[in-house]
Structures are given as C-alpha cells and as structure tokens.
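Query form — protein DoxX family membrane protein

QUESTION: What is the three-dimensional structure of this chain?
INPUT:
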Amino acid sequence: MTAFQYSPGGLRGLILRIAALIGLIGSSVAPPILRIALALPFLRSGLTRWDGFLSLSIGTQYLFEEQFKLHILGNLYGFPAPDVVAYLVGLAEITLPILLFAGFATRFAALALLIMTGVIQLVFPDGWVNFHLYWAAIALAIMALGPGVLSLDYLIYRFFSRSTVQGGTT
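ANSWER: The structure tokens for DoxX family membrane protein are given below.
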C-alpha cells in the first residue's frame, strides 16, 4: 500500500489529469488540422482546373475527355458527359475545401470528398498507397469527429442551442 494508490492527488491522479488534458487539446486541435489536411490537395487541384471565373481550362477538358478513364473490373471506361463531369469536379474541388476551411457543412463536405476519392481511385488505381488511402482516412476521421469547436458548424450549433434554451423549449 503506497501513498500513490489511494491519494487522489497521487501519481494515478496526475496521470489521469494529464491524459484528460492531452485529450482536450487533441479534440480541440485535431478537427481543424484534419479539415485543412483534406482541403489542401483538393483546393490545389481545383485551382488548376480554371482559366478564369467559371471558365474551365482547355487542359482540364482534354483530361476528362481523353485521358481520365475509369478502371472497373479490368476494363477502361470513359466518363459519361466528360465536359459536365469536368465542370462539376472543378466546382467541387474549389467549394468543398472552402467549406472545410470554414468548418461549414463539414461532415457533408468530408463525405463528398470521400466519394470523390473513391472515384479518383477508379481513375488512378495505383494511387491508393500514396494518396487515396490517407485522403479517405482523413475524410472518415472528419465525419466521425465532426468539425470541432473552431468551426462555423459549432458556432451555428451554439447559436441554435442557446436560442432554443432562451425560447423555453428545452
């Protein structure tokens, strides 16, 4: 029987307090870092897709029409309506990262980027080990953890929680 075993301020208590502090720091810092880590590669790609405001670059159009093919069960398939797909991808690669940076509609943006990662995996099947696995893991972590306290989602949640309490409908 040592003093550390029974004292709330002993070694066990200290370790528990430190572990709780580490958890608090992690739960505050991890969500925005994850959001930024997932947003950056998609935003950087999205910025290369445009020649001007809503003017898709010729290179992007060519890639989706001629180069990008879906690898499904050993066969190659072109994208249906490649110009429309290129335009939607270009928009998504700009708007979804912005939503992640702001922490607005965070889980939906992460889900959309997870789906995009799955499609990208079908286009570049050898990219899973270097990129796609990590993008998918980050998207899943964001979907599981949520946006965190440093986000518009959290501010909106707090605003509506407060107005519900003030309205007397708790």
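ADDITIONAL NOTE: The radius of gyration is 22 Å.
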